[in-house]
Specification:
disordered C terminus; 5 helices; 20% strand; Rossmann fold
Length: 167
């Protein structure tokens, strides 16, 4: 299985009295995300399934990915990608979907960097995903522990946009 890990694009600023899970992507966030995903499409990235956090900005990111990458199935929301989740929970979700050839995960930091590191067999975080960054990991799902190999990491800066500060 190939696992594509996509951090959500630039989102609205946090505001008092507004729930974090309701923050949406900004136009700039959509544009940079689209740029990364067009580069990925040119490299033949073609997930058979997109899993997303239920938070608005992640679900919107998954929607942009589905459109740009021509994914026919609607993105599936899963609590395994909530910011409060764990890499082990994401691993369980991936193992449950072992029949998929390629899965794209759309979510948040620090969970996605922790998950990427975990899938590569590391206990500590060794990868940092900027907003709108996309990583590809080749992953076996038959064992009890993940055995992944990083194939590539694409950032908005490399795809043509400038890197953004973390939220």
């Amino acid at each position: 299985m190939i696992v594509y890990i996509l951090r959500h694009g630039i989102a609205e600023e946090r505001r008092a009295g507004r729930a974090d899970e309701k923050r949406a992507l900004t136009e700039e966030g959509r544009a940079k995300l689209t740029q990364v995903l067009k580069r990925a499409r040119a490299a033949k990235v073609s997930p058979s399934l997109i899993l997303t956090s239920p938070y608005v900005r992640a679900a919107q990111t998954a929607g942009v990915a589905a459109r740009v990458l021509n994914v026919k199935k609607k993105p599936v929301r899963t609590d395994a990608l909530l910011p409060s989740s764990s890499p082990e929970e994401v691993w369980r979700e991936l193992r449950a979907r072992h029949e998929e050839n390629a899965v794209l995960l759309a979510g948040h930091e620090p969970l996605l960097s922790q998950t990427a590191s975990y899938l590569l067999g590391e206990e500590r975080t060794i990868i940092e995903l900027k907003k709108g960054a996309l990583a590809a990991i080749e992953l076996g799902t038959s064992g009890k522990a993940p055995e992944g190999v990083l194939q590539w990491l694409l950032t908005p800066k490399i795809a043509g946009g400038k890197a953004e500060a973390d939220d």
